[in-house]
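Researcher: Here's a chain I'd like modeled. Treat it as a single chain, no partners, no ligands.
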Amino acid sequence: MATTTLPSNAFADDAYPNRPITLIIPFAAGGSTDVIGRLVAEGLRQVLGQSVVADNRAGAGGSIGTGAIAKAVPDGYTIGMGTASTLAINPATYKTLPFDVLTDLTPIGNIAAVPNIMSLSPSVPAKDLRAFIALAKSKPGQFAYGSSGHGSVSHLLGEQFKLATGADLVHVPYRGMGPALNGAVAGQVQVVFDNLPTSLELVNGGRLHAMAISGDKRVEALPDTPTFGELGIEEANWMAFFGLIAPKGTPVPIVQRLNTALKQALATPEMRERLASQQAIIVGNSPEAFKAEIARELARFKRAVAAAKIELN
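Model: Modeled as a single isolated chain. Structure tokens:
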């Protein structure tokens, strides 16, 4: 096995790390994954006493950077960010990928989760989600939802909602989440599914009407908005996650060292405050729990993809 060729001191918690660590972020600078990744890189640096260098490798919806993580030397000095997009949505929607997320990557831990939100254009005459579902069922194909593109998180959220409720909504892909939100505000589409942070200002300003969010409980920012779970729509009741992953074969003691360091970083008041500003809910679970979460979410997205007959090359 590859791990037997590593120096013996690579397995010792007191010797690892003894040089800088590279954190591959599979998206461009400025997005949610980049922001959270750089926060975690700094947190790990403070705990481990070694530099953690952020390396943005964007492209193919995150698959290029994720492939680079999978192919890296499994010595703990190259780790990466894994998200709902790269670890669940892409494997469910792309016909082929040069790696298997369940066998070619080693989960370290889920950093944090961000709720998703379903909102309506103010032009829709529905005061709550149950009323909208009834309205949509009475007028099949007459309501549309906007997404950031074919095979995107927002597209899959819409398909999961349709699968769970039987509402017949038309998918309208935009070139990015910003244009999709603008389309909903303008009434070009009636529904939009999104991560909470990018929709929150529009909801608070009354330009979109929040119908439901995902998660175990309501969020402080929108206390009157129920969760999909409360409304019995479990298929859509998942949150976008941001975790740490490593290549297959990374020694267990190193994975555990990184997991412990991650939990210590997440426990600091500064980290909690900065993640909260991103509407992120800290998770900080074990490698085993994160692995089970990835498998569960991949299965969830495969159901939606099969129902909608989505396939990307």
